[in-house]
Amino acid sequence: MKTGFSRCSSVALGFFLSLLILIIQPSMVSALEPPVIKGSQQASTGGQQVLSVMNYQTGLIYTWSIESGGGSLSATTGQQVTYTAPDSNPNGENNPTIKLSVEDGGEVVSDTLSISVNAYTGAEVAYVIVDSELTKNCTPGSPRTECEEVIWFHNYDCSNNPLGDSWCSGCSCSYWGGDL
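RESULT FIELD:
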């Protein structure tokens, strides 16, 4: 019985070591590094941007494609391409996902970049700076003085361009204590 047990153990151990050697053979470990896309995740409708491979390796062929969404690419292969966003983007339906793939020895690895295409071009107010001034129509009182005040609203768009002013006049304000 002892000899049969050690013979089975030797066979099992030999099989395990053969399997382990097969698993960690260097020829089976991938050396192909996945590509990384360099580019912005935002674009304006009709706008262009250059997309490039951040970790480019000479001698490999890099393939670009639009996996979903809209727009176009200036080329399908290369270290860099120019992406042109679509002219419209209703409900975000044309937001693209760009795919970059590289192949070496039958192994393919890839990266994707999702871009949000902004179709907004309006000039609505983005922010307001509020200012005020007191008029000379003050009614002294004790302990407070009642005055009329003009409140100015200086309106600006997202690009810091002034869009004009609006105001509120005749606003009643109370000031407690002290001279005005």
